[in-house]
Amino acid sequence: MKIAIFSDTHCGFKYGEERGEDSFIAMNEAMDKSLDCDIILHAGDMFDGKVPKPEVYSRTAKILSRAHSVSSNAKLIESTKEVSPLALRGIPVVTIHGTHERRSGEMINPLQSLEKSGLIIHLDSSSVVFDVNGEKVAIHGMSGVSEKYAKEVLDKWNPQPVVGAINIFMFHQSVEPYIYSPLDPPTIKLSDLPKGFDLYILGHIHWSDIQNLHSGKFLLTGSTTPTSIHKNEVEQAKYIFKYDGKEIEKVKLENQRKIMIEEFEVGAGVKDRIANFLNTLSVENPKQIVMIKIKGTLPKDVPQPNFRDLEERYKDKFILYINKNVESQDFEDKLDLIKTLNDNRMSPEEQGIRILESKLGQMNCIINPNEIFDLLVEGNSDMIFNLLTGKQKTLAMI
After folding, report:
1. Long-range contacts of 390-397 (CB under 8 A, 24+ apart)
2. Nearest 5°: phi and psi at 376?
3. How many structural domains comprise the chain?
4. What whole-number distance in Å separates Cα of residue 100 and Cα of residue 98?
5. Rounded to an integer, what is the distance from CA 313 to the centroid of its chain?
6. Which of 236, 293, 319, 390 is the most buried (most CB within 10 A)?
7. Do residue 248 and residue 315 come from a single domain?
């Protein structure tokens, strides 16, 4: 028996931009390296957004369909949910949705849509059990929820290991000590995870780790492609993982851009110092991602430095990001907020939901801010007005 595991492919990340192909290249390679397995597990954030472009959805579906052209020894024998026979052709792909795909109420997320097409099995506080050459494998999946509700959802579901099976628990959350955002702290600790499972799989965090937990193993999958550039991603390769019921094998993804992070203090000659550093780097194909971090405090009345000429000069050699965490005595409070948001890698969606949550709280409104945000994304301003004024009581269309 062999199970392939990967997560956070973020298909569609930077689509239409220079890095727009990276997520598809990585997911194709992950699929290539998984086709000798009996089951494929994906631990969330398959897509980079809640409503992927048709082109992104189509390309992702095409990659997933490759699993159905290869034979597998896995046979579904039990399930707590309905499973389409189409999803059992070839190698079953079992998934959960992540925070990037999560939608509220009755809205269909892209993983649910893929499941209705027969491409995947989507778990949301549900389980499936396979027989693989006489071995039983039970996969229990909890899809991503708002962090403040995660412990409550886990406790309410209370998954139990299947007797006589290899039991895998797969979820997509922030977990202490793997804190993704202190602004939205986790409610789950590793010690809170249910006991009796052989393997615990966590998506969401973009670097990888393996450790012992309870009587089993804990696998932090990491991502297959870098989105927010973190120092841990520079220090590690990207992997998929293969599990035989006992051991976890790391399989390196080769088609990755090199990443470089370098810090500079603001001050005299900072642009020349950056240029001298860039001139020491080799030109790669594909281009390296180079993250320059500018730190320090500007004296009062000194303008923010402009680095556009540097970005223009090196655009044909590197994918260059210049992160200006420079504080000014005149704008210290505003820059502190920007720095906090950047350091904690909150996506625009997460920032928007956080603002909505604050505003709705001031109005003593009990409507879930995630539901309001999804309606904003869909352009349903009339429904939002009706909900806030009490004219409409549910998310169902009038």
Report:
1. 395/104, 395/105, 395/106, 395/107, 395/371, 396/106
2. -65, -45
3. 3
4. 6
5. 33
6. 319
7. no
Query: Torsions phi, psi of 43, nearest 5?
Result: -95, 35
Closest by CA position to 137, among listed 212, 75, 217, 95:
75
What letter would DSSP give residue 253? Answer: -
* Strand 135-142 with 126-132, pairing: antiparallel
Which residues constitute the domain of residue 368? Answer: 348-389
Residues 85 and 195 in one domain: yes
Its sign, for the CA torsion 114, 118, 119, 123, is positive
> Are 213 and 236 members of one domain?
yes
Burial class of 361 by CB neighbour count within 10 A (0 to 12, 13 to 18, 19+): exposed
What CATH number is given to the structural domain containing 225?
3.60.21.10
Which residue, chain included where needed, has tokens 């430095």?
Answer: 305
Closest CA to 130 of 182, 84, 167: 167
Torsion of CA 48, 52, 56, 59, to 10 degrees: 100
The angle formed by the CA atoms of residues 8, 98 and 85, to the nearest 5 degrees, is: 95
Residue 210 CA to residue 42 CA, distance in Å, equals 17
Of 183, 217, 252, which closes a domain? Answer: 252
Task: Tell me, yes or no, whether 332 lies in a domain.
Answer: yes
The reply to whether 395 falls in a domain is no
Element (H, E) at 274: helix 270-279
Q: What is the spatial distance between Cα 227 and Cα 213, in angstroms, rounded to a whole number?
A: 28
Q: Which residue has the tokens 């004296």?
A: 299
Structure-token match 């949550």, residue found: 357
The string of pLDDT tens digits covering residues 277-305 is: 999 999 999 999 999 999 888 776 667 77
Cβ proximity of 151 and 192 under 8 Å:
yes
Which has the closest alpha carbon to 82: 33, 133, 41, 118? 118
**How many Cα atoms are found within 13 Å in the side-chain-facing hemisphere of 180?**
25
Determine contact, residues 128/144, Cβ cutoff 8 Å. Answer: no
Give per-residue pLDDT as tens, 46-86: 999 999 999 999 999 999 999 999 999 999 999 999 999 99
Higher pLDDT, 382 or 55: 55
Residue type, 236: Q
Nearest to 74 by CA among 60, 95, 46, 94: 94
DSSP character at residue 108: P
The candidate with the shortest Cα–Cα distance to 11, out of 3, 25, 1, is 25
